[in-house]
UniProtKB/TrEMBL annotation:
UniProtKB keywords: Disulfide bond, Glycoprotein, Signal
SUPFAM superfamilies (alphabetical): Somatomedin B domain, TSP-1 type 1 repeat
Signal peptide: 1-26
Identification of the protein by name: Somatomedin-B and thrombospondin type-1 domain-containing protein
Length: 168
């Protein structure tokens, strides 16, 4: 009889403990929260990443502030940005002039839940076309040679001493 009574007390204590823990424990998934950006109203009460109990967040900022609910990564998985391949380079903006050309790509998947942000979507590069729709350019574009003011002035050479001049 004593064994039955101690085991029933143990079961009763365990039941009360589980009730208290389950009623206090809330998660992002249970609350249905996965908020974009920094959202101070996106909160729950429960266990945090650091195994402390209290207010926890279900927004993207919680990853950097380390106050996410313990199930944030599972309930709100990070989705990184996905972009398309680069387009072909455009032609030069204007023929017969030094100008720029462009290429771009588009966002296929926006980042979610603190996923990797999108890279640059447009690139520019210098270019020059030596012809137009009417034929060759009248003013040919010749690459410039940029030099310093001292171009062509040789440095003075220093005398190299003979082995007979070296003493010791």
């Amino acid at each position: 009889m004593t064994v039955w009574r101690s085991s029933s007390v143990t079961l009763a204590c365990l039941g009360v403990f589980l009730f208290l823990v389950s009623s206090c424990q809330s998660t992002c998934q249970e609350a249905g929260l996965c908020c974009i950006g920094r959202n101070p109203s996106c909160i729950s009460k429960g266990w945090r990443y650091d195994r402390s109990y209290g207010t926890c967040y279900c927004d993207q900022a919680c990853v950097s502030t380390l106050d996410c609910c313990h199930d944030y990564e599972a309930a709100c998985p990070a989705v990184s940005c996905v972009v398309s391949e680069w387009t072909q380079w455009s032609g030069c903006a204007e023929p017969c002039r030094a100008t720029v050309r462009r290429r771009s790509r588009t966002v296929l998947q926006e980042p979610l839940n603190a996923g990797t942000p999108c890279p640059h979507l447009e690139e520019h590069a210098g270019c020059a076309e030596y012809w137009s729709q009417h034929g060759h350019c009248h003013n040919s574009l010749v690459p410039a040679l940029i030099t310093t003011g001292g171009y062509g002035n040789a440095r003075k050479k220093r005398d190299i001493p003979d082995s007979s001049d070296i003493i010791g």
